[in-house]
Amino acid sequence: MIGNSSIFGFPWPYERSAVGFVNQKFESQRVPAHLFNLGFVFTYQTKEAMILSESLAYRPDFIVYGVTFDDFAHLAPYPYPPLATFFDSNSRLVTQLAADPPPTFEEPFRLYRDAQAASVRPWASWIEFREVGTFVRLAVEQTAKLLRQKMFPEFEEKIPRTHRTGSRYSCRKTLRSFEGKYVNWKDWNMLRYLAQLRAETGVEVLVVNWPVVHEPRGDCYNVRYPTDDFLDYVDWLENEASELGLEYMDLHDHLTRRDFLDSVHPTLSGQRKTAAKLAPRIRSLLDRGSQ
What digits encode the pLDDT tens for the residues 153-193? Predict the structure, then answer.
């Protein structure tokens, strides 16, 4: 399963993500399958194309793509500092994909290749310094977690709630921000790449329109999207999946406001509800493929 931070399960540990709950259901029902979570904290289709390209070496039986409208932001190169690290750390793959790009991704991979060739790394020193601190904190946190689990196995880790936007956001700011990020948003299209892989390898694909919160205000669906543009995305995604012959599942309105920590990240109950819908759909597709 590939996707953004919502699929990754942020801020919950892996076993409490929707993917983790799907695997628990598979184990309890003795389903001989395991869903690997290749979600990455930042949302970006170009990044998903890289991860998917490299994952093919492990010969997956099935690909699940959890997608939100955020993934279609039309930005390159380096929209966010952490993604700059991701692309710079995979410069070989960037060059490889720029030479033979997945369908519709010719432009972004060319931009990343050219930026790397020109050594355009506007925050490289800051990123490298920050990574050292991140590594040290991670090592300390993991050591503490292992010690706590060993010494106090009954202790259950608490995840703090993140700040909710609710209806307090400014729709005017949302509209202004959206205009800059989503120009020509259909031009880079992971579904085209998934359809190509399905045709070449026979691996089945399930596209899941992942849940996001519905908190309407003025002309906005929530703090991230204008209503008309978001509904256009929902219709387009379903039609595009159908046209390409990809299995499709729409969960965008599956959860209530109370099932979200913020505009896109579900609570623990939201993760469980999403897994309860996702697991039987994946199982039915696996059963169908084995017949």
Answer: 655 555 544 445 455 889 999 999 998 889 899 999 999 99
Identify the sign of the CA torsion 29, 63, 12, 154: positive
- pTM of the entire structure? 0.84
Instruction: Kindly write down the DSSP assignment for every residue of the chain, as one continuous string.
Output: -B-SHHHHTTTS-GGGSHHHHHHHHHHHTT-S--------SS--HHHHHHHHHHHGGG--SEEEEEE-GGGG----S-SSHHHHHHHHHTHHHHHHHHHSPPTT-HHHHHHHHHHHHTT--TTHHHHHHHHHHHHHHHHHHHHHHHHHHHH-TT-----PPPPP-GGGS-HHHHHHHHHHH-TTTTSS-HHHHHHHHHHHH--EEEEEE-------BTTBSSSS-BHHHHHHHHHHHHHHHHHHT-EEEE-TTSS-GGGBSSSS-B-HHHHHHHHHHHHHHHHHHHHHHH-
Q: List the structure tokens of 237.
A: 């995604």
Q: What is the pLDDT of residue 136?
A: 54
Range of lowest pLDDT (32-36, 67-71, 138-142): 138-142
Range of the domain at 143: 5-290
Task: Say how many domains are in the chain.
Answer: 1
